[in-house]
Design a protein that fits this description.
The chain is α/β, with parallel strands linked by helices and 631 residues long. It has 4 domains: 90 residues, no CATH class; 216 residues, Rossmann fold (3-Layer(aba) Sandwich), CATH 3.40.50.300; 174 residues, Rossmann fold (3-Layer(aba) Sandwich); 75 residues, no CATH class. The chain is built from 27 helices and 19 strands. The strands form 4 sheets. A 7-stranded parallel beta sheet has the order 3-4-2-5-6-1-7, sandwiched between helices. The longest helix has 24 residues.
């Protein structure tokens, strides 16, 4: 009787009728019992087989298979909710928590008076449906996004970020604003991230291990109404991985916040935005994209996919307040004697100095020169790049935040040498920047790590103009960096950057050869993805052949330096999740180079070891790879 009451209520609350799904009333028990007879089950299975064949015929005969998605949607949703129910029931989870969409409560939790909101935050709180949000770094875009979500009142919110470090930081932030029973974290190393959160709360290692695994499983079971994840979790549906229907059912009528959309190169961006368009057209999902800037080709494609002109932009007064940086173009290479002299002078003047280069090898070489000098002067110094173990990188990031995080009252001289990893997640507030040339979007992220809140006079940012081989390899085609430098050269020397004009700079970069190369790469990838993935998407049928293509999207492999094997094995016996923090991510091609040179130990399946590499590693410098491997 209870189920007979709850089922219609559930169907009504989900508004399934609008998506084409009908739920027949439950039969009385006597009749229901009759359906369990073998001959009835066989007849019902024949009906299912006939339905599946009908769906296949629909796709086969359709001039445009994508146009038939609405006819197939009820089958996708029924299969998706069946899989979700089965998994949640097997896991014996408690009743699913509901989201609480109270904008005032969110502001109280964030300790922000309603009267202190910026204009773009107030506008976001009043905007129904899809939107693009453009506002300076450090101007409260996260709060604006949550106020937008509160206006939509979705059953589920997915906060989407490109980097694991960003996702981990956002998970901690949202857990404080909501509570941990309503927020989930989902990415390739989320179990380790959750383990660290729990250990920081004084859990025992055993309790942290068990709880982290349970939290990760819940996130994968669609338990939490608010989830932080990467767009690659969305792409699993397009690649038709096993149970993909459960993902589409989860995404139906959900709200998505996309941050840092500029981080993706055209090939991956096309796949992500094609997935967004599919969810908008066929599953009534709602999207907010936000950034400090949107290159024109991205902005135009977003507005086309979303079918909206809704643009939320910070007002002119805020941009005047956020004049935080004084731009200097410097001749030569940052690591040349003149560049080193300027860096030392800034440190000697008592400033907190950020040096950003484009390759790990260059960061390590620069560190070898600057660190001994800083040590002699008694100045705190840190090196940060992607080839540290997770454990070492976390401790370095925390030390940098302790010295140069937001709202630090005691500012002491500091040197931070870093690669692009500093562009994401770390809310730093140093005094001066010296950087290699890079695409404009990357430079803006680097600028945002000095004088972040604009509470001090404009900070000097020095962009060195010489493009070394490493820069040309990292940023291909290099013409985008060259065009960025051309645009910046048109600015007067020592210009205080007007962030309201940055969009003009960006539009000037995306012209001519840069725009043509970007559009060709994007459109080719979008067309292939649309035809090869969504065009044959059928309920009750996965496509294992696409799984390998999905995994090839991830251009990295985690390895264990041979010198850490003993520590890893000891830790694995006591704290198996923590042992994963000793792994180092490297690019796939770098792994292949090591393999070809005999620097990867033969796998020992009985020991369940990750790939072990004979490569030097120390906690101060990180993993050292041969010159031609290291970019």
């Amino acid at each position: 009787r209870a189920l007979g009451t709850l089922l219609p209520r559930w169907w009504q609350e989900m508004d399934w009728a609008a998506l084409g799904v009908t739920v027949p009333p439950l039969l009385p028990w006597a009749q229901a019992r009759e359906t369990l007879r073998p001959q009835v089950i066989r007849a019902q299975l024949r009906q299912v087989a006939t339905l599946l064949a009908t769906w296949e015929d629909i796709l086969y005969d359709a001039p445009d298979p994508l146009a038939e998605a609405a006819r197939l949607r009820p089958g996708v949703l029924l299969r998706g909710y069946l899989v979700q129910s089965d998994h949640l029931g097997s896991a014996e989870v408690e009743p699913l928590p509901r989201p609480t969409w109270d904008g005032q409560a969110l502001l109280r939790a964030a300790n922000i008076p309603a009267t202190a909101l910026y204009a773009h935050q107030r506008q976001a709180a009043q905007t129904p449906g899809h939107a693009l949000l453009i506002a300076p770094t450090g101007s409260g875009k996260t709060e604006a996004a949550l106020l937008w979500a509160a206006r939509q009142r979705p059953a589920r919110l997915f906060y989407t970020l490109p980097y694991q470090a960003s996702m981990n930081a956002m998970y901690g932030r949202l857990s404080r604003l909501f509570d941990t029973e309503r927020v989930g974290l989902l990415h390739g190393r989320s179990t380790l991230a959750l383990y660290r959160f729990l250990m920081a709360q004084e859990y025992t290692p055993d309790a942290a291990t068990a709880t982290a695994r349970a939290l990760r499983n819940k996130a994968g079971l669609a338990y939490y109404p608010v989830r932080v994840f990467s767009p690659y979790q969305m792409l699993k549906a397009a690649f038709q991985l096993k149970g993909y229907e459960a993902l589409l059912a989860d995404f139906a009528r959900a709200a998505f916040v996309f941050d840092e959309i500029h981080a993706y190169e055209p090939h991956r961006l096309a796949m992500i935005l094609e997935t967004v368009g599919y969810l908008v057209r066929h599953y009534e999902a709602c999207f907010l994209f936000m950034s400090a800037t949107f290159p024109r080709p991205i902005r135009e494609r977003l507005q086309h996919l979303l079918g909206t002109e809704a643009l939320i932009r910070a007002d002119a007064a805020l941009y005047r307040h956020f004049r935080r940086h004084r731009l200097h173009l410097a001749e030569g290479d940052l690591a040349a004697p003149e560049g080193l002299r300027r860096i030392r002078e800034a440190i000697a003047a008592g400033q907190q100095v950020l040096v950003v280069v484009n390759t790990v090898r260059k960061a390590q070489e620069l560190w070898a020169v600057l660190h001994p000098w800083a040590e002699e002067q008694g100045i705190e110094a840190h090196l940060l790049h992607s080839r540290f173990t997770g454990q070492d990188r976390l401790s370095k990031e925390q030390a940098i935040l302790d010295a140069a995080g937001l709202n630090q009252t005691e500012r002491r001289p500091l040197l931070v040498v870093a690669t692009q990893v500093v562009e994401v997640s770390l809310n730093l507030d140093l005094d001066v920047l010296f950087t290699d040339p890079a695409p404009l979007e990357a430079l803006l992220q680097r600028f945002g790590r000095v004088n972040r809140l604009g509470k001090r006079p404009p900070a000097d940012v020095f962009v060195f103009q010489e493009m070394d081989d490493g820069t040309r390899r990292v940023y291909r085609p290099a013409v985008q960096v060259e065009r960025t430098l051309e645009v910046l050269r048109e600015a007067p020397a020592g210009l205080v950057v007007d962030e309201a004009r940055i969009q003009d700079w960006l539009d000037a970069v995306y012209t001519g050869e840069v725009l043509t190369a970007w559009e060709e790469a994007y459109e080719q990838s979008a067309a292939e993805f649309r035809h090869n993935f969504f065009a044959d998407l059928l309920p009750f049928r996965g496509n294992p052949a696409l799984a390998d293509q999905f995994h090839r999207l991830f251009d990295s492999v985690e390895v264990l330096p041979e010198g850490l094997m003993g520590t890893w094995e000891a830790l694995r016996a006591e704290q198996p999740i923590a042992a994963d923090a000793l792994l180092v991510p490297i690019r796939w091609y770098q792994y292949q180079h090591l393999l070809a040179r005999g620097l990867v130990l033969p796998p020992d399946k009985s020991a369940d070891l990750p790939p072990v590499v004979r490569v030097p590693y120390d906690g101060e410098k990180g993993m050292s790879l041969r010159e031609d491997d290291a970019y």
